[in-house]
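Final report, section 2: Outcomes. Of the targets proposed, Lysosome-associated membrane glycoprotein 2 is the one most frequently requested by collaborating groups, and we therefore present its record in full.
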Amino acid sequence: MDSLACNMSLCSKGTLCATQLNVTSAAPASLTTGAAKDTTTIQTSASPNTTTAAATTIPLTTANATTLTTHNTTITTTQAHTTHGNTSSHAPTTHSTTHASTTSTVPTPPPLPQPSTGEYRVNQTDNSTCLMANMGLQISYKQGETFESVNLEPNGTTASGNCGKNNSESSLTLHSPIISILFVFKNVSSKFWLHSFNATVKRSGVDFSDGNLNLSLWKASFGSSYMCRKEQSYNITDTLVLHTFDLRIQPFAVVNDRFSTAYECAVDDTSILIPIIVGASLAGLILIVVIAYAIGRRKTYVGYQTL
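The predicted structure is given below as C-alpha cells.
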C-alpha cells in the first residue's frame, strides 16, 4: 500500500505493525436492507495487500438478522473476531423465545343427577286404569354440535293418553313446562312393544322436537309388564337419546290397578348366570380329570421297562 505510514523494515517476518496501521483506502461499504424479512447486512472489506500474507481485516464484522413472527422470536448473531495473523470465528449464537398462545376452553357442565321416579296412569271412561308406568326419564338432545340433557321432573308433570280399541294400541303423553313426551305401544299376536316415541323440549329459547315412529323396544307378552331397574339408554334418532331409570310399564290389560308379572330386561335378569356358573364348573372338573389321567398314564410307563 502506498498510503501506509508504517515502515516495512521495522516489523519482522513481513508482518504489518498493528500499532502503526493506518488504513486510508478501502473498498466502499455496502448496505443491504431487506424490508420483507427485516434483515440488515453491513459488509466492509479492505483492499488486499500483496506484500503481506496475513491480511488485516476490519476488527469486527457483524451480521445481525432479526426475524419477527407472531408467536416466536429468533435472534441470530454472528461475530468474526480477527487477531494478528489469524482469524477466529465463533459459531452463531441463537436465542429463541417461544410464547405459547393462550386459548380459552368452555368448561364441561357436570352430569345431571338421576331423575326422580314418577308414577303415571291412564284411566278409561269408567275411571279404571288401563295403562300404568313407573319410571325416571332423562332426555338428551343435540343442540348445535353438542348434546344437552334435561330431566323430566314428576312434580308438575301431567299424564294423559288413550288405551285404544280392542287393546291393539295405547298411548301415554307426559307434559311438563319444559318437556313433552309421547309413547305409543302396539299389541300384535299377544306381544306388545314400544312402537313410537317423540320428545319436545322448550327451554332458554330452544325449541327442539324429534322422534321415531318405527321402534321395537320393551317387548313383552300381553297381560304382563315390562321392567328394567338399571339405567338404559336408547338412541331414538341421531339427535335424540332416551335414558330410563327404574322402569316398569304395562300398557295393556291392567287388573285392579296393579302391575302383572314382569318381563325383566336382559340387564336385570340374573337367572342366566346360573347356567353359566354350572357350565363353567363342569368344564373345570372335566379338565382336572383329564390332567390327572394324563399324569397317571405317564407314571405307569416310567415304572415298567420293556423286555
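The chain has two domains: 8-97, 118-264.
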